[in-house]
């Protein structure tokens, strides 16, 4: 009787475990992506000059990305920033940092991925984010007729992984800045403790494996990391930096958290960005 009860308990536990694994496999995108369809803030509320833009994702133009074009204030550089935001919210939640580039004299294209804000399309996925970033790139180079060498790619958090993937496809871009991003989603799942009780490497379909991609980058890259970041382990930026090819730089901000590095660093943030722009200009002049 005891043996039969033990076998029953083992069977129930195995079924529950497999059900949990299946739930995580099916529902992982809902854990990773936290889109917000409601725009509660636009550039005019912050006194920013802007144009509303719609970026086609496919030739039929049935799927479109909504975003804002923030024209430059001044002329610190002839580069334009393609801004790729993180996993949560929408473009309205990322205006503060995007407008900082605008104030530094850089035009900015800030877009929502499909499933975010006013952009069309289904719920986000890794593959769709990559497609959306490439669509934004084509919008800048084809519709706004910007030379690829005049586009600077910026990505924050999961947007950093998207930016790294895009930069691996368009090595002719001017450069790449990634802020508070991670090595891979598998590493993040392990760090969060999921690897202690489920086989995350088998279950993951959304991999965002930036560590595998950065060694093949062929453009200058600046890694920015807040050392007080509790969302992404700061050491992950260090691992990405070590794996990346030259030319590369890394800058850490002691009190910087996941979403406030620029605010904490203040004018030093601006100085570091302008310094990176100088490196890019010198590289272009040297051929």
What does this structure look like?
The strands form 2 sheets. Strands 2-3-6-4-7-8-9-10 form an 8-stranded mixed β-sheet, sandwiched between helices. Strands 1-5 form a two-stranded parallel ribbon. With 287 residues, the chain is of the alpha/beta class. It starts with a helix and ends with a helix. It has helices at residues 2-32, 95-103, 126-143, 158-169, 185-191, 200-203, 210-213, 235-243, 261-265, 267-285, and strands at residues 34-35, 51-56, 64-70, 80-84, 88-89, 108-111, 151-156, 175-179, 221-226, 248-253. Helices cover 41% and strands 17% of the residues. The radius of gyration is 21 Å and the shape is globular. The longest helix has 31 residues, at 2-32.
What letter string, H or E per element, gives the SSE order?
Answer: HEEEEEHEHEHEHHHEHEHH
Q: How many strand units?
A: 10
**Class derived from helix and strand content:** alpha/beta
Radius of gyration: 21 Å
Order of strands, main sheet, comes to 2-3-6-4-7-8-9-10
Name the beta content range: 15-25%
Overall mean confidence score, pLDDT = 89
SS field, number of helical segments: 10
Low-confidence stretches: none
Q: In terms of topology, how is this protein built?
A:
Layout: H1 2-32, E1 34-35, E2 51-56, E3 64-70, E4 80-84, E5 88-89, H2 95-103, E6 108-111, H3 126-143, E7 151-156, H4 158-169, E8 175-179, H5 185-191, H6 200-203, H7 210-213, E9 221-226, H8 235-243, E10 248-253, H9 261-265, H10 267-285
Parallel strand pairs: 1-5, 4-6, 4-7, 7-8, 8-9, 9-10
Antiparallel strand pairs: 2-3, 3-6
